[in-house]
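Pasting two entries for a bug report.
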Amino acid sequence: MTKTALITGATTGIGREIAAAFARDGVNLILVARDQAALNERVLEWRDQFGIEIATFACDLAVPGAADELADLVSARGAPIDYLVNNAGVGVYGTFDQTSLRDELAMITLNVVTPTVLCKRFLPQLMQRNGKILNVASIAAFQPGPYMAAYYATKAYLLNFSDALAAELAGSGVTVTTFCPGPTASGFQLRAAMQASRLVKGKTLADAASVGIAGYRAMQRGKRVVVPGWTNQLTTLITKFLPRAAVTRAIYRMSAPA
């Protein structure tokens, strides 16, 4: 039986690599992104090469109500999904007194509301099909993040929500994986306007291909919380034992403009 994966943020970066992994394994795709032209490129790239069916939906999931509308459109196709990958996300860089409230609220909608809505809407059919959920968070989920205060908070929500959902669904046949990569060369930094941050300026970032494959494999194995890369794992471990104030000060210094 051919399976189907719904993937948000599917045209670039980590989402593209996860979608490509599904395609190589012969899984039909429902790709979601803002740019229809980029979606069309993915269809041309994978449909004939892997002999799969690919549906696309161009929408901005940072707009209130868009996730519900997407769920309605996907459900109207009549074909249930087996995998849900909530990868779409965005950051806003800068001190909170200087950043745009409009941008912050759009980020919260995309990073928090959208994955919550899609999990809620598609969970019944995933439970019928022993499906899998992959929610892409970040190592930012494990500590406060000055200069990206609201972004770090959205990823903390996604980590805690997903881990709790995984516990609730234990034994149901559905697995929920929270994937928490570190900084990755994916275009995220450019969109977040954080090129000047010490977190990324002059740094060699992990490549999206290896990170995406790690997330895909973690989901297929039904892992609960996965942090790829030993340096990222060490970072998250250290934050558990240091005083919270010390961790916050360290992130403040590391995140400041170089």
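Entry 2 (this is the one that rendered wrong in the viewer):
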Amino acid sequence: MYVCICRQITDSQIRDLCRDGASNMTDLRTKLGVASECGKCGKLAQSIVKEFHKSASFINAA
């Protein structure tokens, strides 16, 4: 699903970047340009990052 229409960035791209170590919006903005145009995607992008790291911590705990 597209998260950032301005930059054509998908949720999969954000999750891939999280797998590579991105952990906050600064990382996303620097590497993908998320929320650097109109900014409407910022909240959704942030929630994807939080969700990814929350689920990753459960996987690592097992």
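Dev reply: Rendering is fixed now. As a check, the viewer should reflect this: Residues 12 and 57 are 19 Å apart (CA to CA).
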